[in-house]
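User: Design a sequence. Structure:
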């Protein structure tokens, strides 16, 4: 399932640069690690609870 999700995004990078980078953030609910691409599991603590945040570029920041 995760692999299917990765492919369209991968191909989209070449034709739709607007979708690369800003707007989406994936964050582990357990340890708070952030990822550019949604991982199946957290690479840090192995939790499967990954939160996905979508926001307009520059409006929501939590750093
Ligand atoms: Zn984690």
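Assistant: Done.
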């Amino acid at each position: 399932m995760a692999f299917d999700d990765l492919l369209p995004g991968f191909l989209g990078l070449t034709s739709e640069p607007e979708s690369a980078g800003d707007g989406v953030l994936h964050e582990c609910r357990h340890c708070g690690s952030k990822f550019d691409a949604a991982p199946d599991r957290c690479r840090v603590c192995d939790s499967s609870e990954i939160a996905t945040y979508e926001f307009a570029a520059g409006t929501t920041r939590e750093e």
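The longest strand covers residues 24-28. The longest helix spans residues 2-15.
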